[in-house]
Amino acid sequence: MAFALFPGCIARNMYPSIEKSTQMVFKELGLVLVEVKFTCCPAPGVIRSYDFDSWLVIAARNLAAAEEKGADLITICNGCYGTLEAAHRHLSKHPESVAMVNEKLSAIGMSYRGTSKVLHFVDVLDQMLPQIISKIKVELGLKVAIHYGCHYLKPSCESGRNVESPVVLERIVQALGCESVDFPEKLSCCGAGGGVWSGDEKVSLGILDRKMRFIKESGADCVLDICPFCHLQLDQGQKRLKNRYDVPVLHLNQLIGLSFGIKDKVLGVHTHMVATRDIAKKAKRARKESEVEA
Amino acid sequence: MSQDLSESLKEFDLAKCVQCGKCTASCTSSRDSNLRTRRLVFMVKSGKDVSMDKDLWTCTTCYACQERCPKGVKVTDAIIRIRNAAARSGNRPSIHLTAIRSLLDSSDGFPITPDISKIRSMIGLPIAPFDVAHDEKEKERFRKLVSSLPIAGMAKEG
User: Fold this and answer.
1) CB-based contact B130 A37, cutoff 8 Å
2) What ipTM did this prediction achieve?
């Protein structure tokens, strides 16, 4: 089965550094991707809350586009995963919904068959850990505050994921030669989901503020996410909180890219709102040390 | 509350709720908003109309309540269904209309801006992403698909 990257609209249109880092890391790992033209997933928070069927039809269009190329989808965003995986799961159990979406899709000559799986990139990378380890050029030795976000882990009714004490990101971070630091509220939401990011700034930033306070107190060098929407909240949100925490934010593919020895400016990590220069300096130093050793 | 909504919520097992309050205790949003999940479930079970409750829209859909519910009530899924009913009755935050209209028109809820195009170019990505939004023919097909969806009607009404 081929793979199609589903970048999502935030990675494409707001944090292209995440799209770039993903492309570079996937290439290094030999993950061959087929190109498919997608739309917004669409956003589970707002669109699904307004009208479930409309959300389902647009999601089915994206799934059908991947099916046409015979590809499974790899998402790099919890929101896209939350939409595409949930839509795929719903359709697998509701033939009446399949009939409804296919009636709509037939107007543009498409159809949903359910032949493409929806994967979260964390699961793909976890399966490739030996290859990742073999590509590590620099051990960054960073203290990392892991932020899982919500829709990778939850709802767990079908996936059976360990929601209260997951270990997959800790395993990857450790393999990269970094240390995962513990902090209260580690598994809580960033405050952006459900349409709250755009709908209620006070609530959204209140949730983020509490989380960032604990992250700052943990002494972490950076906060690590697996979702461009969490990334947007953690990075831009810190600016909206008057930058009182100043903790750099990295998507997992950016941390892996830096560990592969790719420069921060090539990955685009320097374009974030919260300055990442301390991380870049550490990466540069580690790169030089590894060159001397070599 | 309409009979239809009440009926459609049955699959989420709200009847099993014993009002233990674990949902409210687990709620990310409750410490910063007036959303009280236990109360919301109680109101629905009592047949009250909750569709005009504006606190409905402060749920981040994080699923903590649903995961922790000892009775297996699908709380978050129920909140999303209630929001659908609320949106149909006119209780829908208008602030989301910009993103919805953008999605319907361009195929992206968050469309690209000139600043981001510059960043894309600076870091060696094609200025225009490989997507439906930058393919006029595909975009037209997408517009045709969404024109008959209920959400297009809501976007038009405002």
Assistant:
1) yes
2) 0.97
